[in-house]
Amino acid sequence: MLEKVYETLKISASALTAERRRMNVIANNIANINTTRGANEEPYRRQYVVFQTVMDKSLANTEPIGKGVEVTELVEDQRPFKKIYKPGHPDADGEGYVSMPNVDIVEENVDMIAASRSYEANLSVLKNTRAMIRKMIDLMSNL
């Protein structure tokens, strides 16, 4: 029984770690929304994380069982940069257009809300699992 509880805690903890990483990447995107020139001389390119389910394939003759989630990749968004007309800007091209990062603040806010809610849901699972463990200990001590 305790190993099932422990697995529940591990799964929720892995999701908390993954969602925290996702929120950090979103915050970085928002912080760089006006960065027109980075180390590679290009505007900042939006990033996002890719999650993958961690599977347990160790049980013989059974279907693999999910054991959590992990961030497997940090991907740069290949959508084109936004062009705005700012002829006096130091990064303006010959026609006066500046390439701006491909970060959309509305999209980032929606992603942040989704990540926050997922984080809160997994935190709730951890709290409820902890409460069940306490109740189980109380019941066993009364035997």
Describe the 3D structure.
It is built from two helices and four strands, in the order H-E-E-E-E-H. It has helices at residues 2-31, 105-141; strands spanning 47-56, 65-76, 82-85, 97-100. The strands form two sheets. It has a two-stranded antiparallel ribbon with strand order 1-2. It has a two-stranded antiparallel sheet with strand order 3-4. A hairpin with an 8-residue loop joins strand 1 and strand 2. Helix 1 (2-31) packs antiparallel against helix 2.
Summarize the structure.
With 143 residues, the protein is of the alpha+beta class.
List the helices and strands and how they pair.
Layout: H1 2-31, E1 47-56, E2 65-76, E3 82-85, E4 97-100, H2 105-141
Antiparallel strand pairs: 1-2, 3-4
Helix pairs in contact: 1-2
